[in-house]
Amino acid sequence: SVREQTVRISQASRSHLWRQALARFAELPVRDVVSYNATISACAKGSRWPLSIELLQVLQRSCGKPDAITYNASISACVKGEHWQGALRLVSEMRE
Question: Which of 6, 15, 39, 92 is the most buried (most CB within 10 A)?
Answer without folding.
Answer: 39
